[in-house]
Amino acid sequence: MAAVPATGASVPGRPPVEDIFDRLLALHPKLIDLSLDRMWRLLERLGHPERRLPPVIHVAGTNGKGSTVAFMRAVLEASGQRVHVYTSPHLVRFNERIRLAGRLVDDDALSEALARAEEANEGAPITFFEITTAAALLLFAEVPADVLLLEVGLGGRLDATNVIDKPLVSVITPVSIDHVDFLGETVAAIAGEKAGILKRGVPAVLGRQPAEALKVIERQAARLGVPLTIQGEQFQAYEENGRLIVMDEDGLVDLPRPRLIGAHQIDNAGLAVEALRVAGLKLAPDALEQGMKSAEWPARLQRLGPGPLSQHAPEGVDIWLDGGHNAAGGQAIAAALADIEDRVSRPLVLIVGMLGSKDSGTFLAPFAGLARELIAVPVPGDHKAQPPEEVAAAAAAHGIAASTAASVAAALDGLRDYPVGPPPRVLIAGSLYLAGAVLGENGSLPD
Questions:
Q1: pTM recorded for the entire structure
Q2: Cα–Cα distance measured from residue 321 to residue 188, given in angstroms and rounded to the nearest whole number
Q3: In the chain, N or C: fewer CB atoms in 10 Å?
Q4: Residue 180's pLDDT band (boundaries 50, 70, 90)?
Q5: Phi, psi (deg, nearest 5) at residue 18
Q6: Do the beta carbons of residue 135 and residue 45 sit within 8 Å?
Q7: Looking at domain 16-294, does it have CATH number 3.30.1490.190?
Q8: If you average pLDDT over every residue of the chain, what do you get?
């Protein structure tokens, strides 16, 4: 995710939206009260756009939210429906967060919505995510669409998106440890925050959950009379003979294997299919099949194509990019790369940069015995990143040979001295911020 500028005067040739971002960031409260009061106040002044939205599917969870949304979007669009999508963070441009009826919001529409939210806010303290979410809801309310896929930004209970009264269905992807400073230090505590999106009587579909997370979510669902459909219980998703099988009490669906790579995408695709079934949305006969074939989600085991950055690598090097940054993400990525290694063997080199708030040791542990080498790099931009030396030390603690480089480009340049043998397979990972910088530098802009 490219950094949104923190402060600064207008610069000639700079998009006006960037000046609005500067002003909105300056409103960030010095002390954050954990409530939705700021959102409710602003939404009231904007005429309550949250009450004028298309039918909503609300998605929370730790891992797999974006991929699950991507599968749902692909299926719905294959069925001819107009789909709004709200996701975060962005990788290269803020516009990626807001998709209006199938297209990324343009700068003019975004600037107008942000200006209206800024005017209504009247200079009151508010977080950047809150006020930009309010602007997004304004756009979603005023542009016609059939469905809004609304992804939680952080947690759920007090997230700025949690102002929706009655979604079609609530979805909670697998819960694991992440953002402990905000959500708690245990899976149970984090699950409690995610379960905060559940609404009285509204059905919910759950991805595979650790036992301690499932217990918490089930308790909250029982309080609110929420019918639960749980992966591994009420429905199953698995691969069989290179196909995706999704089975529930209504029958079995036999689909192409998802386009997105990795065994974890079988679960994400199955969750998406089941959520759409529970939502009761009418789909064209071949929409599920077409959606599995066409779904895209950048920086999730994405092969990096030709570009200014990838040209730094020697000929034949296979470069992959993933924004994964927590323990569960590391496990999923390592499993996917192990599967690729079984089919086409190459030495694996990791290029990793991580934020200071992340646990590099738990992320890297699954790569022990799989990765030949790790090169730690800084995360570009104004971020509280881990020093590359700390990431390298965490890798070394797991028996992975480790070094540092000044940038991803420098790390790729260094591969020119790689020992004789098959060209290495490279994974660039550890942070969505790093992934966004890589895509931007390579000219691979999400659309």
A1: 0.91
A2: 31
A3: C
A4: low
A5: -65, -35
A6: no
A7: no
A8: 92
Separation between Cα atoms, residue 102 and residue 97, nearest integer Å:
12
Over residues 393-412, the pLDDT tens digits come to 999 999 999 999 999 999 99
Determine the average pLDDT of the residues in 380-403: 94
Domain 16-294 and domain 302-442, same fold? Reply is no
Please give the distance of CA 93 from its chain centroid, rounded to a whole number: 14
| Cα 426 off chain centre by | 22
pLDDT at 258 over 90: yes
Please report, as a single letter, which amino acid is at residue 306.
Answer: P
Q: Which residues touch 417 (CB under 8 Å, ≥6 apart)?
A: none
Q: How far apart, in Å, are the Cα atoms of 279 and each of 55, 203, 204, 231? A: 10, 8, 9, 16
**Alpha helices by DSSP H, 196-257:** 211-224
Assess contact for 41 and 124: CB atoms under 8 A.
yes
Please tell me the distance from the alpha carbon of residue 399 to that of residue 44, in angstroms, as a whole number.
56
* Least trusted range by pLDDT, from 10-14, 210-214, 375-379: 10-14
- The token pair at 321 is 């990019």
Rounded (10°) angle between helices 287-294 and 264-279: 150
Report the CATH number of the 302-442 domain.
3.90.190.20
What percent of the chain has a predicted confidence (pLDDT) above 70? Answer: 94
Q: How far is CA 259 from CA 276, 291, 301, 433, in A?
A: 18, 9, 11, 24
The 3-state secondary structure of 326-387, one letter per residue: CHHHHHHHHHHHHHHHHHCCCCEEEEECCECCCCHHHHHHHHCCCCCEEEECCCCCCCCECC
Angle between the N-to-C axes of helices 128-142 and 107-121, in degrees from 0 to 180, rounded to the nearest 10: 120
Tokens at residue 345, please?
């063997």
pLDDT above 60 (res 337)? yes
